[in-house]
């Protein structure tokens, strides 16, 4: 029963993800479908494929990798028709995106989550959603308002703490973010908290400040709470395309990043950015956001993501197939019992 409900929820999320990713005119799925109207695999075909992938925000480097990979497979399997390349391309992309098996181990440890990223990408909102979800799983959750730049940022997190039903550690506007982290870590230890979520300020204009502040926070966490696992996630706005990739590069040059949250995939995001980041930086996308509500953030599932990206493409998602097979299974069992 539980599994079925989860399936239903996932299907809703998948459907909305698909709608989000196919929202833009000239969506990748449309260009992708058109590609295979060509019969032959020639230079034109590869040029068009390149254009489609770059247009979807996949970036030059990742696009070139995919095409090289495809060319090798076309040669190996002696493929002659463009149409036969569809599954190959989708599979090549899926292969580049596997999320490591231990990617979510931190959820079951005593963890301090440091949420970083530039202004407006969705850090505070994502923390609110995560807090509510972890709490619903029965975890003891605490938030820390270490974005002390503006009073509004602290208030915003407070609102989320009420909505999620979790406690918050905050000081006044302008206070030292590291002092907030210090207080929060002490509280997390004293209260036997499972997950402490730390909201940080989104300043990138001064790289040195940012680096100093982040490393100071990390130092306090590891010194004051050596048993805790630190999970540092960067939040990126999916609608900003190649800028998001650049932000991920810059942050990873100054601090350790364990994973990525891509938000706003319900907007005009073209979606390829998730693929570019994962394959260029080799950091897994762990969560994706498709709206402003609590349930609009979920774990990243590369298989259904790629399927959603190529939505016009006549392939059933794994989730849809599971749901279908469940429906078929139930009456069959009932029949058996009737006999
Ligand atoms: P921060 O500055 O990084 O903390 O960003 P905020 O959490 O304040 O988010 C900035 C804006 O983006 C807010 O209006 C959020 O409601 C919105 N937002 C965050 N995530 C999503 C998302 O997945 N989809 C949409 N449509 N809006 C989002
Ligand atoms: Mg914020």
Question: What is the gist of this entry?
Answer:
By secondary structure, the protein is α/β, with parallel strands linked by helices. It has helices at residues 2-21, 28-35, 43-55, 60-76, 85-96, 123-136, 151-164, 177-190, 207-224, 242-254, 272-281, 302-309, 318-338; strands at 111-116, 141-146, 167-169, 195-200, 229-237, 259-263, 285-289, 297-299.
Descriptive account of the structure:
- The chain has 339 residues and is of the alpha/beta class.
- It has two domains: 2-98 and 307-316, SRP54, nucleotide-binding domain (Four Helix Bundle (Hemerythrin (Met), subunit A), Up-down Bundle); 105-300, 3-Layer(aba) Sandwich (Rossmann fold), CATH 3.40.50.
- It is 54% helix and 13% strand.
- It contains 13 helices and eight strands.
- Strands 3-2-4-1-5-6-7-8 form an eight-stranded mixed sheet, with helices on both faces.
- The chain is elongated and about 65 Å long.
- Residues 117, 119-125, 156, 202, 235, 263-264, 266-267, 289-292, 296 line the site of guanosine-5'-diphosphate.
Features:
339 residues, alpha/beta, Four Helix Bundle (Hemerythrin (Met), subunit A), Rossmann fold, 2 domains, eight-stranded mixed beta sheet, 13% strand, elongated, binds guanosine-5'-diphosphate, binds magnesium ion
Work out the helix count.
13
Helicity range of the residues? Answer: 40-55%
Strand order of the largest sheet: 3-2-4-1-5-6-7-8
The largest β sheet comes out as: 8 strands, mixed
Q: Helix- and strand-based class?
A: alpha/beta
Which ions and ligands are bound to the chains? guanosine-5'-diphosphate, magnesium ion
The low-confidence runs, each spanning 5 or more residues with pLDDT under 50, are: 313-339
Tell me the span between the first and last alpha carbons: 24 Å
- For CATH, the homologous superfamily of the largest domain is named as P-loop containing nucleotide triphosphate hydrolases
Q: Any idea of the CATH class of the largest domain?
A: Alpha Beta
> Within the CATH hierarchy, at the fold level, what is the topology of the largest domain?
Rossmann fold
| Total strands | 8
Strand content: 5-15%
The ordered H/E elements are HHHHHEHEHEHEHEHEHEEHH
Shape: elongated
Mean pLDDT: 86
């Amino acid at each position: 029963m539980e599994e079925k409900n989860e399936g239903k929820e996932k299907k809703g999320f998948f459907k909305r993800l698909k709608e989000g990713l196919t929202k833009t005119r000239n969506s990748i799925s449309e260009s992708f479908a058109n590609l295979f109207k060509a019969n032959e695999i020639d230079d034109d075909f590869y040029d068009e494929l390149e254009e489609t992938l770059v247009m979807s925000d996949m970036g030059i480097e990742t696009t070139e990798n995919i095409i090289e990979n495809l060319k090798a497979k076309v040669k190996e399997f002696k493929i002659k028709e463009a149409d036969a390349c569809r599954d190959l391309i989708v599979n090549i992309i899926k292969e580049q995106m596997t999320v490591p098996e231990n990617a979510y181990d931190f959820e079951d440890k005593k963890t301090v989550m440091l949420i970083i990223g530039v202004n407006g990408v969705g850090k505070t909102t994502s923390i609110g959603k995560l807090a509510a979800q972890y709490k619903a799983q029965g975890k003891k959750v605490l938030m820390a308002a270490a974005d002390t730049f503006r009073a509004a940022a602290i208030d915003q997190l407070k609102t989320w703490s009420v909505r999620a039903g979790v406690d918050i550690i905050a000081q006044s506007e302008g206070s030292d973010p590291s002092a907030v982290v210090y207080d929060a870590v002490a509280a997390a230890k004293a209260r036997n908290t499972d997950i402490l979520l730390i909201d940080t300020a989104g300043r990138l204009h001064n790289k040195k400040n940012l680096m100093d502040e982040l490393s100071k926070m990390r130092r306090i966490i590891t010194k004051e709470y050596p048993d805790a696992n630190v999970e540092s996630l960067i939040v990126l706005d999916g609608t900003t395309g190649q800028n998001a990739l650049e932000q991920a590069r810059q942050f990873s040059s100054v601090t350790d990043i364990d994973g990525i949250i891509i938000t706003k995939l319900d907007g005009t995001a073209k979606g390829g950015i998730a693929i570019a980041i994962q394959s260029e930086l080799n950091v897994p996308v762990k969560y994706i956001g498709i709206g402003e509500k609590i349930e609009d953030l979920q774990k990243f599932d590369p298989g259904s993501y790629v399927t959603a990206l190529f939505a016009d493409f006549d392939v059933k998602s794994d989730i849809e197939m599971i749901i279908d097979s469940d429906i078929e299974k139930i009456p069959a069992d009932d029949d058996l019992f009737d006999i």
